[in-house]
Amino acid sequence: MAAYAVCVRDGQILLARSPAPDGTPEWVLPGGGMEHGEDPYDTVRREVTEETGYRIEVTGLLGMDSSRHVLRREGLRRATDHHGLRIIYEGEVVGGELRNEINGSTDLAAWQDLAAVPGLTRVRLVDIALRLWRERPATGRAEPVEPAEPVEPAEPA
Questions:
Q1: For the chain, what percent of residues have pLDDT higher than 70?
Q2: Does 49 reside within a domain?
C-alpha cells in the first residue's frame, strides 16, 4: 500500500524523479509506501516532505489505483506475484522549500508544466492520477480508456 499526492499550481504539477529498474530516470508522483501501522493520510504528507521538501495540506481524496504484476527475477525459480494498492490524494503546498531528496528513492524534485507531461518519461501512475484530478469520477477509479474503433471510409456516392 502506498499514498501519493497530486499537487498542481499555476499550470504545473509537482513531480519527483526516480530511476527505473533499468536505471533510466523517470518522473513519479511524490509519495510512497506506508509504514506498518501508519495512516495513509500521514504517509502522503511524510513522503511528499521527504521527496520534495514541501509540507502539504491534503485537500481531497482523488481515488485509488490497483495494480498486479508477476515479476520474474534472475536466479529465482519462482515468480513474485505483486499486488499494489495506491491511494491518490490532492494536496496543496503550505510550507517548506523545494529541495531534492538525499539518499532516498528519488534524486530530483521539480514543477513540470502540465502541457509537457505527455512528453516526459514517466510512470503510468502519473497519467492515472492526472485523469483522476481532471475528471474526479465519483467511483474514485480512472476507467481504462477503450481504443477508438476504426472508422470505415465512406462509399463513393
A1: 91
A2: yes
